[in-house]
Amino acid sequence: MILLDGKALFQKIKLDLSNEVQRLLDENKKAPHLAAILVGDDPASDTYVNAKMKACREIGFESSVFRYPNDVSQNTLLDKIFEINDDDNIDGLIVQLPLPHHIDENDITHSISHKKDVDGFHPVNIGRMVLGLPTFLPATPFGIVSLLDEYNIETSGKKCLVLGRSHIVGTPISILLSRNTRLGNATVTLAHSRTKNLDKLTMEADIIIVAIGSPNFLKSSMIKKNTIIIDVGIHRIESTQTKSGYKLVGDVDFNDVQNYVSHITPVPGGVGPMTIASLLKNTLYSAKKVIYSST
Description:
Blueprint: E1 2-3, H1 6-26, E2 33-39, H2 43-59, E3 62-68, H3 74-85, E4 92-95, H4 105-111, H5 123-131, H6 139-150, E5 159-163, H7 170-178, E6 187-191, H8 198-204, E7 207-210, E8 227-231, E9 235-238, E10 246-249, H9 254-257, E11 261-264, H10 271-288
Parallel strand pairs: 1-11, 2-3, 2-4, 5-6, 5-7, 7-8, 8-11
Antiparallel strand pairs: 9-10
């Protein structure tokens, strides 16, 4: 079994990005600037945003966090987004999800300028991805593809099963892996809550990407020998074996499947760090205007 170590790859990417920042500064250009909007006091969201801002500091990016209470109005958020859209000093903008129920997530994320949408959620960027045009790829699928590339995992002609059809992970990664590209050409099946005979699909798959939102869902009895597994899930569950009283697990029962797989991402330390790495890459692309140079 080979661990697909996202944490180690993230360190390599941060070094590359840090060197890119220094080159920009040597050319008397500004460092890339990532802004984040954080609503409420959810501990997980706060942790995610802090991790992104810490990574920015480590590689020399500028960063800003705009915090709002849980009862903030949608118009207040929209006004701030429009302000940032017009701010030439800020290259990328993310709004940490989830948002409170009274806020329309689609309205918020779609109001971000597609030229600063480093999460890759805007319809313009999704459309360009579908067409195979240069764009900001959704951060988690971008991170998954980067991991597959780093470990020289062959996807061409392989049967790839994606569990979960969200617009953030499942749908975009299914598109990326089915395209006629070097890291594509897979025969992709997208499964979801209405899929019948799921065990049959998992047993036939060479590569399984699990983003189903259910802790320890995928078991060894569901897969064939030497399957490649990408575990996107992350869940905090109670544990008597840790001082904190909880532990983090994925959508895959790691202990159960580890002797059946050829490659697998750990949780934590697999896809999570690569999502942040991809966000930083997109912010650099935005600062250098390598995607939207004339549009």
